[in-house]
Design a protein that fits this description.
By secondary structure, this protein is of the alpha/beta class. The protein contains 6 helices and 9 strands; from the N terminus they run αβββααβαβαββββα.
């Protein structure tokens, strides 16, 4: 097992992601972006059963057993979908004995949002928010760092996990959360591969869905 972990970058990565109205699978072999494969589907009436069926359509049992890195988004997104994909990811991670990474949906979209809005200043922070149906917002805070080896590469750190806030501070930078299935799935694979050295095979135990409010909101 030690040799397998030390050579983790030479093995396939599986990503599982969900938004407010869809769920997605992504697959990347040997950290090669050209090998990316995606499966994106809108919710239907039986997400619980169809999630497993669609995973089986996307990846064979043989290839699933070869996965050496698994990554999942934990929300905030659709409550039931976040809960189901986290349970699925934890189960796969435990069964095939591979590390599991988790990232908030806002952290996954943070780099895309910062690039779109031309936020390139080192150590500049901004918030991503989602307006609630009733009162208030869900908001997370993110800070930009430049990679010392490749300054053009933006590194985004989540400094405040998405939480419920009553109001948005006018002095801060705020951008509305906008899901993008394919782009966010790519970034989830990127984040997972960059986090290779920080993973362990028991990491699934700490991965839980993130949803700051009750499902009825």
């Amino acid at each position: 097992m030690t040799n397998k972990l030390n050579q983790r970058e030479n093995y396939p990565t599986l990503a599982i992601h969900s938004t407010d109205n869809s769920f997605c699978f992504g697959y990347r072999k040997n950290n090669n972006l050209e090998s990316d494969e995606f499966y994106i589907k809108k919710f239907d009436n039986d997400l619980c059963n169809n999630l497993i069926n669609d995973l089986n359509k996307f990846i064979s049992i043989e290839n699933l057993q070869k996965i050496n890195k698994l990554s999942v988004s934990i929300g905030p997104a659709n409550f039931n979908a976040s809960r189901l994909i986290v349970v699925l990811a934890r189960t796969i991670s435990q069964q095939i004995n591979c590390p599991l990474d988790s990232f908030s949906s806002f952290e996954i979209m943070a780099k895309r949002i910062s690039s779109k809005n031309n936020i390139f200043t080192n150590k500049k922070s901004f918030w991503i928010y989602k307006k609630l149906k009733r009162k208030g917002f869900i908001a997370g805070k993110y800070e930009i760092f430049h990679n010392e080896k490749t300054p053009s590469d933006l590194v985004i750190r989540e400094t405040v996990l998405p939480k419920v806030v009553k109001e948005l501070e006018s002095k801060e930078l705020f951008f509305e959360a906008i899901y993008n299935d394919k782009e966010d799935l790519k970034e989830l694979l990127n984040l997972s591969n960059k986090n290779i050295l920080n993973s362990n095979i028991n990491s699934w135990k700490k991965v839980l869905p993130l949803y700051p409010i009750s499902p009825i909101n």
